[in-house]
Amino acid sequence: MKSRLIRSALVLALIPLTTTATFAAAPNTLTEKEISDGWILLFDGETLFGWKAAGNADWEVVDG
Predict the structure, then answer these.
(1) DSSP letters of 16-39?
(2) What does pTM read for this prediction?
(3) d(CA 6, CA 10)
(4) Residues 4-35: tens digit of each pLDDT
(5) Listed residue (24, 55, 51) closest to 40, CA to CA
(6) How far apart are alpha carbons 24 and 15 in whole angstroms?
(7) Could you tell me if residue 24 is left (phi over 0), alpha (psi between -120 and 50 degrees) or otherwise beta?
(8) By the 8 A CB rule, do 28 and 41 touch?
(9) Is the dihedral of CA 7, 12, 13, 19 positive or negative?
(10) What are phi and psi of 24, to 5 degrees?
């Protein structure tokens, strides 16, 4: 129990160090560095680009 509390405190202490970079970009977009590193969005909010159904799924994008 004590180690769980310590881990939780450490995670909460590190959040301010990571949130600045995380929220710098607009939501659902990649930074220039992420794009140059080869990252792609799992969902762009508009299309199903890159998604492939393993079965008989009939996906569609509705309201982003």
Answers:
(1) HHHHHHHTTSPTT---HHHHHTT-
(2) 0.38
(3) 6
(4) 656 665 555 555 555 455 555 566 788 999 99
(5) 51
(6) 14
(7) alpha
(8) yes
(9) positive
(10) -70, -35
